[in-house]
Amino acid sequence: MTMQLTGIAGSTALVTGAVGGIGSAVASCLAAAGAAVVAADIDGAGAAALAETLRGQGASALGLRLDVTDHAEVERAVDTVERTVGPIGILVNAAGVLGRVAALTEYDDAEWQRVFAVNAHGPFNCMRAVGRRMAERRAGRIVTIGSNSAAIVKTGQGLYGASKAAAHYLTNCLGLELAGQGVRCVVVAPGTTETAMSRANWHVSGRREALLHGEPDRYRVGIPRGRFADPREIASVVAFLASDQAAHLTVTTVTVDGGSSLRP
Ligand SMILES: NC(=O)c1ccc[n+]([C@@H]2O[C@H](COP(=O)([O-])OP(=O)(O)OC[C@H]3O[C@@H](n4cnc5c(N)ncnc54)[C@H](O)[C@@H]3O)[C@@H](O)[C@H]2O)c1
What sequence ranges are listed for the domain Ketoreductase (predicted)? Predict the structure, then answer.
């Protein structure tokens, strides 16, 4: 039996962090399903190039330079998209930064502010601007790319995991508040996925193998599936959650990590 995703074609989808590994896979997947994709990223040239590629494949796409940490810029961008492209039916919060992998006692205030600005304040800015409008229209789907680090404690990821836990809570809280108004909000929590973000640390000797196989001396488990996720394996779950086939899914977190969270 083949199942076609419905409810995406004809929608306007705003994807933040769209130039990144997961964001670009999500943008491509939603475009292939027929959404008009607004590819937003702080890397404006990259966003424009991605939109051009998607248009070349016959999709409707617009590239937008957007810094999700800037509340006023987000409000302006959402207003412009709604006036020029269409009412946003799907928001995917994929912009994120890993920050430095370090012991908690070694971080300085600037690192805290940077990681929280992008990973927690960013989704808040976007969900506040888009959620208000979706609630008025009594329709909308929001998917935040969180992380399995929000639910399992990992050494060296104090700031990242805490900022992602905030994003998980914000998204699910909005989902609860808007559940009666036709707006669904869900978190997708990936484990290590092959993108620029995860590869950034693989130059450290043994790091890649440690992520795969675990580090018992650092209380870290590996990935039971024995490999990292392909960004398209995250994107297909996001597309499903944005579709009508997931119509009863809201206020929840879907973990896509090859089993590494060991959650029942
Ligand atoms: N790769 C992984 O292993 C992994 C695992 C779990 C969760 N995640 C999450 O998935 C999401 C996507 O990560 P990725 O692996 O594709 O990383 P990536 O580094 O490839 O992409 C992140 C994108 O976010 C953009 N960005 C950063 N700051 C921004 C800002 N202020 N405003 C707008 N855009 C901004 C970057 O320009 C980049 O294009 C992130 O939220 C990340 O935390 C990734």
Answer: 11-182
Domains of the chain: 12-256 (3.40.50.720)
Contacts of residue 73, defined as CB under 8 A and 6 or more positions apart, other chains included, come to 66, 67
Q: What is the pTM of this model?
A: 0.98
Nearest CA to ligand 1 atom 21: 20
Ligand 1 atom, smallest distance to 229 CA: 3
> Which among 107, 160, 169, 219 is annotated as catalytic?
160
List CB contacts of 77: < 8 A, sequence separation 6 or more.
40, 64, 66
Q: Is 197 in the pocket of ligand 1 (CB under 6 A)?
A: yes
Task: Check if 99 has its Cβ closer than 6 Å to any atom of ligand 1.
Answer: no
